[in-house]
């Protein structure tokens, strides 16, 4: 097989070839390493490439498989880790100049899980500084580019993960999401991303700010919904080191994956989620709903009247993280932080206790409203983002005749479900006339990832969008 084609296979396709010994983990790993060297100078997804370690792990996987010790679908499959996850003996910067030389002595929970599954780590991929942004334009570790158009952003904060998967620089990548940081780059880069229920996947070993967020979810970024199910299977489970981790049985996420949507009730929250969209996004979302309806789902309009207060509430809640980082902020100059992060870093010092408590009240209200809606429908379906990827450096956008800050626009449809802790999946649902990906978001009840994945898989199987790859 052509090496480029090999690097664009899904995890399922790759793992079947490895399991049947048609190709070896050593061959696969070398193909990815060669492609990273050839393509990544244009994309800048990787901040640390661990060639020697990857080759060693590949050889160990090959020997184990030949000896009959096949561990499962990720055994021998090359992946990458977002540089907000600690990796034992491997530099972990958190996207920060302050930690440019930090080498942890332990692995994050998600890194451990993927290592146990037999995955081969190719290295660490870029992130917005401390995960506090949506562009992955990082003054310390470089600016990652979108594989569909290198003049545009990949989104963030897991932009390195999104770009690496989309460009065929790894088969899958870890990400985390505190306001959209898995779903935004997945949508902008034309891949599948899943934010599991809060507490479903361990946040242990996430980098400082991220590990403290009560809204952060770790999850997979991959080529297909089936790959998302396979990776969630590897990642999910209780971790006593994470105070938010929930000790709830992990189901088989692939068992009912192809069950279809016939008879399911899908909620369409037209207020807020379908307002002020770029025209091509609105058209793609409308077409996607028609596909789901044609597959047998019923579409029911629903209302979440207080959802507009999600953004200010999230900002107030995030202020707890900057307060918790008081020691770091007192031992390092604010000038060591990028300009966009400085404001967020000191946010906690300007948010009163009264405002913080009010934000928590809003959070409870939103969760209550969502639970009431989920008594009537099985899932919500919305556009993932109101627009496609913008050019690097673009600070504002105009949607529905209203000019607004890019950050405000890009997280508008994703952040509410960080406050509620709900599982949320993004799948490709079209492209703009200029060839930029558009995503569709499916949101479910807590710990109903299997149903969310089933809906996403039904849509994916009926459409061609997930099959497209960038020309790079």
Automatic annotation (TrEMBL):
Keywords of the record: Ligase
Keyword Ligase: yes
InterPro entries the record matches: Amidase, Amidase_CS, Amidase_dom, AS_sf
Official protein name in the record: Asp-tRNA(Asn)/Glu-tRNA(Gln) amidotransferase subunit GatA
Family in the record: Belongs to the amidase family.
Pfam family, one: Amidase
Root EC class: ligase
EC numbers: 6.3.5.7
GO molecular function, one term: glutaminyl-tRNA synthase (glutamine-hydrolyzing) activity
Coiled coil regions, renumbered to chain: none
Residue ranges crossing the lipid bilayer per the database entry: none
SUPFAM superfamilies found in the cross-reference section: Amidase signature (AS) enzymes
Amidase domain segment(s): 27-453
């Amino acid at each position: 097989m052509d090496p480029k084609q090999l690097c664009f296979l899904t995890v399922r396709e790759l793992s079947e070839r490895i399991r049947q010994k048609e190709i070896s983990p050593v061959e696969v790993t070398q193909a990815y390493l060669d492609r990273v060297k050839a393509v990544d100078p244009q994309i800048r997804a990787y901040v640390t490439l661990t060639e020697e370690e990857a080759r060693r792990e590949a050889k160990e996987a090959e020997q184990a498989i030949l000896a009959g010790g096949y561990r499962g679908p990720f055994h021998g499959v090359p992946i990458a880790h977002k540089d907000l996850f600690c990796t034992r003996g491997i530099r972990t910067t958190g996207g920060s100049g302050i930690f440019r030389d930090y080498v942890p002595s332990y692995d994050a929970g998600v890194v451990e899980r993927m290592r146990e599954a037999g995955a081969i780590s190719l290295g660490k991929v870029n992130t917005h500084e401390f995960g506090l942004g949506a562009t992955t334009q990082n003054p310390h570790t470089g600016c990652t580019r979108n594989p569909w158009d290198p003049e545009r952003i990949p989104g963030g904060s897991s932009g390195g993960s999104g770009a690496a998967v989309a460009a065929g620089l790894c088969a899958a990548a870890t990400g985390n999401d505190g306001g959209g940081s898995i779903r935004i780059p997945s949508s902008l880069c034309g891949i599948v991303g899943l934010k599991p229920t809060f507490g479903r996947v361990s946040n242990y070993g996430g980098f400082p700010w991220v590990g403290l967020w009560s809204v952060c979810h770790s999850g997979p970024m991959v080529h297909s919904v089936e790959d998302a199910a396979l990776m969630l299977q590897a990642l999910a489970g209780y971790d006593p080191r994470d105070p938010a981790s929930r000790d709830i049985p992990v189901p088989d996420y692939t068992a009912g994956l192809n069950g279809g949507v016939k008879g399911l009730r899908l909620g369409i929250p037209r207020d807020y989620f379908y307002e002020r969209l770029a025209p091509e996004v609105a058209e793609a979302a409308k077409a996607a709903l028609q596909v789901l309806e044609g597959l047998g789902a019923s579409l029911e309009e629903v209302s979440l009247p207080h959802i507009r207060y999600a953004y200010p509430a999230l900002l107030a809640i995030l202020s707890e993280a900057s307060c918790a980082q008081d020691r770091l902020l007192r031992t390092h100059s604010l000038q060591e932080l990028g300009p966009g992060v400085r404001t967020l870093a000191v946010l906690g010092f300007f948010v009163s206790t009264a405002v913080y408590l009010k934000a928590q009240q809003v959070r409870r209200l939103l969760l209550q409203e969502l639970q009431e809606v989920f008594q009537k429908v099985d899932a919500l379906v919305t556009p993932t983002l109101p627009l496609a990827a913008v050019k690097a450096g673009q600070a504002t956008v105009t949607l529905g005749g209203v000019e607004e800050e890019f950050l405000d626009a890009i997280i508008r449809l994703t952040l509410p479900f960080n406050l509620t802790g709900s599982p949320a999946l993004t799948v490709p649902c079209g492209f703009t006339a200029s060839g930029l990906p558009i995503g569709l978001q499916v949101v479910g009840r807590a710990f109903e990832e299997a149903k969310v994945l089933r809906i996403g898989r039904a849509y994916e199987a009926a459409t061609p969008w997930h099959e497209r790859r960038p020309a790079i």
